[in-house]
Design goal:
Arc Repressor Mutant, subunit A, 7 helices, 3-stranded antiparallel beta sheet
Length: 173
């Protein structure tokens, strides 16, 4: 029931109310609950990024990326090491290392130094590629990356964001 229908129904109920000798004040409280349907864990993959990944990256690198999509935490955090990737995807260490380098080089992964261990890095999926979270936190993440040490990490395959929106499956690179 929309708000206009609700207002009509309330008006009818007030008109049909049985007043005794004099009209009385009527108070109407409306509580409109919207039930949220629980969704399974989801991640949005943006079309321009999906197109570039499927046409430019090799199969092993795409497998690593799909694995990252499936394991990414809220706000795209990935806490997986090379050994786990090797075991889960049955790939060799050189293949995994090369795949990670390709994902970094093409700005699909955003890499930060781990705050607790300077020998390690934390990875996040570039919010231009995909996002797990709400739009407000995505915009905040993009602002943080733009104002950080490497604002060009948002440029997938070194293509500026403005040009990505014009990409079509039949575009020439």
């Amino acid at each position: 029931m929309n708000n206009e229908q609700l207002a009509r129904e309330i008006h009818k109920a007030v008109e049909n109310a049985n007043y005794e000798s004099t009209p009385q004040e009527i108070t109407v409280n409306i509580r409109k609950d919207t039930k949220k349907i629980p969704l399974p864990p989801t991640i949005m993959v943006f079309q321009a990024a999906a197109y570039l990944c499927s046409t430019i990256l090799n199969a092993s690198t795409n497998r690593i990326l799909m694995y990252f999509f499936s394991k990414s935490g809220y706000e795209n955090y990935i806490g997986i090491d090379v050994k786990t990737l090797m075991e889960e995807l049955t790939l060799s260490k050189p293949t995994v290392v090369k795949g990670l380098k390709d994902l970094e080089k093409n700005h699909i992964l955003v890499k930060y130094k781990n705050v607790n261990d300077s020998r390690r890095h934390d990875y996040f999926i570039n919010p231009i590629t995909a996002w797990r979270g709400n739009s407000f936190t995505r915009n905040e993440a993009i602002k943080k990356i733009k104002s950080g040490d490497s604002p060009n990490q948002l440029d997938l395959f070194n293509i500026p964001n403005e040009k990505k929106s014009a990409l079509k499956p039949n575009s020439d690179f």
